[in-house]
Specification:
Radius of gyration: 18 Å
Oligomer: single chain
Largest sheet: 8 strands, mixed
């Protein structure tokens, strides 16, 4: 299973994986990017409803995400609250089940010095694994680079937003791809944003090159997915209508809508998915 990122659009993925778990459909291997990593890990820990629960409960809590966090720490999403207090004290992440589940779970990060994707397997669900997941979801400019494995890392979506090619290279015959954009979406260039990014990230030319070509790479991947789907190499689950969410989404009702769309789309697709898998 391949899980795209997309910030709080990841509640769509949460709805999808909850329905899969309720129907006892588990992958042998899963790879998550950004929100697909930090939310998708609950697929391996088998925690139905957890992503929905804690995001709705804490979406208005400025300890989780705020401009103040960014100004004071360099991270718009708090490392201390979001990746320490929340999973280990407030809504406990089941690392025992995560570790015992034979599913392989891999996250994608971007090495900001080379611009290359880094694929890291997270087998234990411990503090170090959670830090790799945080790195995968650390958005450039509003997050500090995360130092792991001798590298400086940020959002995996910059270098490999939909890592289907990587998963195919692992040799799996049946591949589920969960997207967070509808079928008509295509990414477009944003020259004004690039001017800003070049000013802020000028020390990282390889990262800037990724960002400048990101829309091209993303759209090429979508075209490749279309061909793979026709050939029966992948089964795609994507939003039935456009999904909109702010970087810091304070509206719990909107999070619920996104989650329910994921559930509804997956429930409608269950029989087709079962047929594909068998």
């Amino acid at each position: 299973m391949v899980m795209e990122g997309g910030g709080m659009r990841g509640l769509y993925t949460a709805g999808v994986i909850d329905v899969l778990m309720e129907n006892d459909i588990y992958a042998d291997s899963a790879v998550g990017v950004s929100a697909g990593a930090v939310f998708g890990c609950n697929y391996k820990s088998e925690q139905i409803g957890r992503v929905r629960r804690y995001n709705k409960k804490y979406c208005k809590d400025k300890r989780l995400a705020s401009i103040r966090n960014w100004i004071t720490t360099g991270d718009i999403y708090s490392k201390e609250f979001g990746y320490n207090e929340l999973p280990w004290k407030l809504d406990i992440f089941d690392r025992g089940t995560y570790k015992d589940n034979p599913m392989k779970f891999t996250v994608v990060c971007t090495d900001i010095n080379t611009g290359k994707p880094v694929y890291h397997q997270c087998p234990n669900g411990d503090v170090e694994d959670i830090e790799w997941m945080r790195a995968s979801a650390s958005i450039p400019v509003v997050s500090r680079p995360v130092k792991l494995g001798g590298k400086q890392l940020l959002d995996g979506g910059v270098s490999d937003p939909i890592p289907v090619e990587w998963m195919l290279k692992q040799g799996y015959e049946k591949n589920i791809v969960v997207l967070t954009r509808d079928i008509n979406y295509r990414k477009t260039a944003n020259p004004r944003m690039m001017m800003f990014l070049k000013a802020v990230l000028h020390k990282y030319p390889a990262l800037l090159e990724d960002l400048e070509k990101r829309h091209i790479h993303y759209n090429e991947t979508l075209e490749k997915l279309g061909s793979l789907e026709k050939a029966g190499r992948v089964h795609i689950i994507r939003p039935s209508q456009p999904v909109k969410a702010a970087m810091i989404e304070r509206d719990a009702d909107n999070l619920e809508r996104i989650y329910q769309m994921g559930r509804s789309d997956m429930e409608k697709d269950l029989e087709q998915l079962r047929a594909y898998l068998h």
